[in-house]
Amino acid sequence: MRILLVGCSGFVGRELVPVLLEHGHSLTLISRSSRALAGLEHPQLQRLLADPSQPASWERPQLQEALASAEAVVNLAGEPIAEKRWTPEHRQLLVDSRINTTRALVAAMAALPQDGRPQVLINASAIGYYGTSTSACFEESSPAGADLLGQLCRAWEAEAQQASDFCRVVILRLGIVLAADGGALGKMLPVFRLGFGGPIGSGQQWMSWISRRDLCRLIATALEDPAYRGTYNAVAPTPCSMAVFAASLGRCLGRPSLLPVPAPLLQLLLGDGAKVVLEGQQVLPVRLQQQGFGYCDAELSAALASAIG
Ligand SMILES: NC(=O)c1ccc[n+]([C@@H]2O[C@H](COP(=O)([O-])OP(=O)(O)OC[C@H]3O[C@@H](n4cnc5c(N)ncnc54)[C@H](OP(=O)(O)O)[C@@H]3O)[C@@H](O)[C@H]2O)c1
Questions:
Q1: Dihedral (C-alpha) 22, 23, 27, 31: value to the nearest 10 degrees?
Q2: How do the domains of the chain map onto residue ranges?
Q3: Pocket (CB within 6 angstroms of ligand 1)
Q4: What is the residue with the minimal CA distance to atom 20 of ligand 1?
Q5: Quick one: average pLDDT of 95-109?
Q6: Is 184:245 a contact under the CB 8 Å cutoff?
Q7: Which superfamily, per CATH, for 2-308?
Q8: pLDDT, mean of residues 113-129
Q9: How many CB atoms neighbour CB 52 within 10 A?
Q10: Is there a contact between 169 and 102 (Cβ–Cβ < 8 Å)?
Q11: Which residue, 40, 37, 42, 74, is CA-closest to 215?
């Protein structure tokens, strides 16, 4: 397939791009920066970036041209959620970087002639869709939460769903993506390796996770298999509490994991954004299991061992 990738220069994209190349797909990258992927070392990726037309820009004519020759689109774009303090300006950026990019992408797809449009759109969302709870268990049919992330994800998904008038749309509500070089695990690893790790906050909050290699396999499967359609919880079938997660990580590294990270420290650093880490949600991949998706990493300890290598 010829696939247009948006927001794929980041933490997920850096494994997704090589996976899709290995599946034999040809890729066009859309990025705000031509340097975004240059640091990645995959040989096929370096060959791809040696092509002077890569990555294409967000300018409408270039985007339209790239879309016209694409059979599929993957959209992962969005300002990182838990990196900076949530000031009013940052909240707006979190929203705009998802809603406006997805809206522009879908509008550019819709403006193409009917027989020249991509046939499938894979769009990211997040399990933050459901809000947070220590007791509830969320499936794809559960309603959106009333908090900022719940409402943001609902609006983000609605923008992507506009494309279902003319193509197959797959929305993946991503859980906490596990890989050693970034995301939540990437931040916890250095502290745990020094023996100063422990649960963040109360330890009671749920962690619904997915290994990055399973997520990339899922995206490739959803692109290639027309049976995938609609919204899926992109999580492993074994969510756990933060306390269990911290203990498993400590065991995996052969280090103690008893020193809790106090919630007020994170609140100081991230403001309201600390909620993402201090409160979680128990989310089950009901539709992926119905569809028979085969996980490489269904259990946490094995997923951590393979992520940490
Ligand atoms: N990682 C997780 O655990 C997790 C969990 C739930 C949901 N998600 C969602 O899944 C998507 C992919 O995750 P990720 O961890 O790979 O994300 P990421 O590395 O933080 O960012 C993905 C891409 O978004 C684009 N981007 C960043 N800031 C932007 C802005 N202000 N405006 C427009 N585009 C912007 C960048 O692409 P360019 O620089 O190339 O333009 C970047 O490569 C994100 O939308 C994320 O919110 C991730």
A1: -70
A2: 2-308
A3: 7, 9-13, 31-33, 36, 76-81, 93, 97, 101, 124, 126, 174, 176-177, 183
A4: 80
A5: 96
A6: no
A7: NAD(P)-binding Rossmann-like Domain (3.40.50.720)
A8: 97
A9: 6
A10: no
A11: 74
Q: Rounded to whole angstroms, how far apart are CA atoms 275 and 252?
A: 27
pLDDT digits (tens, 9 = 90+) for 42-97: 555 656 666 666 666 677 778 888 999 999 999 999 999 988 899 999 999 999 99
Digit-coded pLDDT (tens) for 233-290: 999 999 999 999 999 999 999 999 989 988 988 888 888 888 888 999 999 999 999 9
Q: pLDDT tens for residues 137-193?
A: 999 999 999 999 999 999 999 999 999 999 999 999 999 999 999 999 999 999 999
Residue with tokens 């397939």: 1
pLDDT, tens digit (0-9, with 9 covering 90-100), for 182-212: 999 999 999 999 999 999 999 999 999 999 9
Which residue has its alpha carbon closest to ligand 1 atom 46?
78
Q: Ligand 1 pocket: which of 76, 181, 275 to mutate (most atoms <8 Å of CB)?
A: 76
Instruction: Return the ligand 1 atom nearest residue 30 CA.
Output: 40
Cα 238 to ligand 1 centroid, rounded to whole Å: 24
Residue 33 Cα, ligand 1 centroid: separation in angstroms? 13
Rounded distance between C-alpha atoms, residue 13 and residue 29, angstroms: 10
Question: In 3D, which of 35, 27, 51, 291 has the Cα closest to residue 172?
Answer: 291
Instruction: Return the residue whose CA atom lies nearest to atom 1 of ligand 1.
Output: 177
Other CB atoms within a 10 A radius of the CB of residue 67 amount to 21
Q: What is the pTM of this model?
A: 0.95
Atom of ligand 1 nearest to the CA of 128: 6
Distance CA 94, CA 247 (A): 32
As a whole number of Å, the CA-based R_g of the chain is 19
DSSP state for residue 176 in the 8-state scheme: E
- Which DSSP letter does residue 206 get? E
User: How far is Cα 272 from Cα 63, in angstroms, rounded to an integer?
Assistant: 35
- At residue 292, what are phi and psi to the nearest 5 degrees? 80, 25
